Amino acid sequence: MKIKCAVFDFDGTLFDSMYVWDRAGEDYLRSLGKEPGPNVREDMRTMSLAQCAAYFKREYTLPFSEEEIADGINRTVEGHYFHDVLPKPGAAAFLEELRGNGVRMCLATATDRYQVEAALKRCGLECYFDAVFTCGEVGRGKDFPDIFRAAMAHFGADRQNTVVFEDALHAVRTARADGFPVAAVYDASEKDQEEIRRLANVYIPDYMHLEAFRAFASGMPEGQKRCVIVGGACIGDVPRIRKLIKKDDFVIYCDGGLRHRAILGAEPDLIVGDFDSAENPRLPVETIVLPREKDDTDTCFAAKEGVKRGFEDFLLLGVTGGRMDHTLGNISILLYLDSLGKTARIADDWSDLEIVSQRTVRIGSEYAFFSLLNITGQAEGITVRDAKYPLENGKITCEYQYGISNEVLPGKTAEVSVRQGKLLLVKVRDD
Hints:
This protein is α/β, with parallel strands linked by helices. It is built from 16 helices and 17 strands. The chain has 3 domains: 5-16 and 85-218, HAD superfamily/HAD-like (Rossmann fold, 3-Layer(aba) Sandwich); 18-83, DNA polymerase, domain 1; 227-429, Rossmann fold, CATH 3.40.50.
């Protein structure tokens, strides 16, 4: 089985629990003396809880805040998650099969976290999942791909080997349009099964009949290579940086970065540059010669070229230090790649840098310090756990960068997340 990561929907895909929501909206509205419209069930199916709350407030002129409406809907259904809902037949055995094949798993669901976690714990399935992502926390429903991208980024994986398991047509359509392989799971609540079959890569009628899925999984391509971009800034700790490069990496050297070729021991797969910092070596390697007057720096062009060639994971070396304008420009490449749903980091002699956006990032004890910097102008709902200076639902502005020099608690792995906006995470190594 060549799948590396699996992203499961909860209601209707993993658990037989869509009945919980079939009448939830109607029951809630009637409890307030409002007669629900004929399309409430269908409308709710494509929405996150926050979207449902906004919809009810707008369409039924409810005299409550959206948060109060969402809480009311949750109270209507929460008892089922704590006491009633069960996994689909064969689901537990399927999860065990995936885990036995080394597949990492997480959940991506429109249901609130506390309800999902209650059902998982009651049924003994929480051990299978690395993380739970909810539409409410991500900030968008599954008519946008944000939640699938967040799950993929959590794994540090690529789309090619991250399979999305879904039962709802709108979610299948979204995941496929964003390039994810989709395994569609039958649920009676979704009426348009023919369209789902047409869109999905593989169709699972139930977890007792997995022959088609296993054939699909065995035929998936191997994991995609990583794109390593080497710039011309100083590399002092050669042993550390050299260790980061893998044999199967696709290595792009940018102009002056070619001076690191010998010390890194990595031959170029591609050379790009305007060669104002070094002569074109005219090696028997693909080389793209750029004009000297252009909008993109050589490093930025290399990143865009890596995106064009389909890479999902990027490592940038030799891009910090020296000229401050170049350093800041190269950090902005992390933002560019993050906006495309790619995973990317910068490594230098002392630090590892990456963007924290719609995912939880974990920081191990090998780092002496870590800092969170607002570089986009807006970062709210910041949570820091298992660190010397914890934070809950915080806000960091560009004018007041108080998130510098935090520390992981002894024996712990710190966690950082941000609900809205993006942060630059700088992890300083302890060696």
